[in-house]
Amino acid sequence: MTERLTHIIGGQQVAGPTTFESRNPAYWQEVVGVFPSGTGPDVDAAVETARLAFRSWRLVPAPRRAEILFRAAHLLSERKEEMSRLMTREMGKPLVEARGDVQEGVDMLFYIAGEGRRLFGETTPSELPSKFAMSVRSPIGVCACITPWNFPLAIPSWKIAPALVAGNTVVLKPAEDTPLVAHRFVELLMEAGIPSGVLNIVHGGGDTGAALAKHPGVDLVSFTGSTETGRSIAHACADTGARVSLELGGKNAIIVMEDADLELAVDGAVWGAFGTSGQRCTASSRLIVHKNIYSTFLSLLAERTRTLVLGDGLESSTQVGPVINQSQLQRIHEYTEIGKAEGARVICGGEIAGGEGLQEGWFYTPTIFADVEPQMRVAQEEIFGPVTSVIPVDGYEQAIEVANGIKYGLSSAIYTANVNRAFTAMRDLNTGIVYVNASTIGAEVHLPFGGTKQTGNGHREGGHVLDVFTEWKAIYVDYSGTLQRAQIDNQP
Ligand code: ADP
């Protein structure tokens, strides 16, 4: 039976006249849920409710707010399997990866709940006698969290948990391809004790997201998604004056040097390029390989890639699931055509998969382009599918130049046995995340997550996320009983 869901605004279930469906990408005929398409009035109601709730939530002591998040972490841990299976049905990633996504939510809840007893500020001497100076973190207000479909639970958790622990209230607008996982996560947080109105969810597509992003009652927009959408959100926030945190695209490179452990590098490349069907912003979509080992690396990579088993993520044999929807499938295939026209050589895949068990879903064969030149579109643009481009280089200097020669700067990796070279690369790679002898994916929640250049606007989630969801307040307490003038009194 198909589930019919609603928005949740102020703890109330709110339906709507027009609806959309969330479907299983492995069996596109299976409708996972039916959701209302949020309209302007729904967004107004959610933002107003969140504004009202902010008045009391900001006054709840942070350790009490955090206790609710600890409870949510335990609940999510207990329901990990159920939530993971739902995620695989709705989003397609293999169950083992869906479990990782849910675990990331558990980790984030525990990590951020710990901040309830920290949220450290600073004290510092005043330049004047009998005067006390400190800075404290304050909540910002109503946070609009607009999330993508590739990490249907982890990404909402990265935003909602820190927003709430800091005393903000939230309106979540999850991706229209994965609304049910996000909905269940919001219900779980409310079951753990988040009060009505403090956390609201409005479903819908880009129009709903746009209405939320430009709402004058929103104080902060936290967005993860495409560069194009991020830019339009930044424009909207420039008009309203809302704070804005953007996590956008990536075109991440693994550098494989001539002294690398090749088996290890191939393991990392296959996992980084084809895990989650390449639909991670940190996916290894470029492999920059030293010419001395280029042909050996290519044949090992192709050999391994051809053995990957495509299928429904709920089957234990599946290593690569479907891609999210039909338009994404077509977009990926268009890039294959673009790559061929540019002169890149397809040595593996390059087709919409149509074998047994794959005809009712959106499957693309893991694809490797060889002999790619750094300026080709397939080496510059984010494809967001199981496609990687292998680029030969003469040596370290050229490898770094190619790795940094793109508009994005999220993640990068180098495989080398030379410790000096590894440290030089840590210095030279212009990305927010750098891995040594590991793939470009695998971020942990307590380290800063985000990128340089057009990957974002300078913010970091994960480890330093409280800098996004709090505002610094400087406080001076004068206990001298006299008028003391800074920069004037006690000066020569
Ligand atoms: P993706 O390619 O990952 O789907 P999008 O940027 O299109 O990236 O979508 C990410 C999120 O942004 C989704 O929740 C989507 O509904 C929302 N969204 C899409 N367009 C807009 C927009 N113009 N303004 C605000 N949110 C939007």
Task: Offer a few descriptive terms.
Aldehyde Dehydrogenase, Chain A, domain 2; 492 residues; 15 helices; Aldehyde Dehydrogenase, Chain A, domain 1; 24 strands; globular; alpha/beta
Summarize the SSE layout with pairings:
Layout: E1 3-4, E2 7-9, E3 12-14, E4 19-24, E5 27-36, H1 40-57, H2 62-78, H3 80-91, H4 95-115, E6 122-125, E7 131-139, E8 142-146, H5 154-165, E9 169-173, H6 179-192, E10 199-201, H7 206-213, E11 220-224, H8 227-240, E12 243-247, E13 252-256, H9 262-274, E14 284-290, H10 294-306, H11 326-342, E15 345-348, E16 367-370, H12 377-380, E17 387-393, H13 396-404, E18 408-409, E19 411-415, H14 419-428, E20 433-436, E21 448-449, E22 452-453, E23 461-462, H15 466-469, E24 470-478
Parallel strand pairs: 1-5, 8-9, 8-11, 9-10, 11-12, 13-14, 13-19, 14-17, 16-17, 19-20
Antiparallel strand pairs: 2-3, 4-5, 6-7, 7-24, 15-16, 18-22, 21-23
Helix pairs in contact: 2-4, 2-6, 3-4, 3-6, 4-5, 9-10
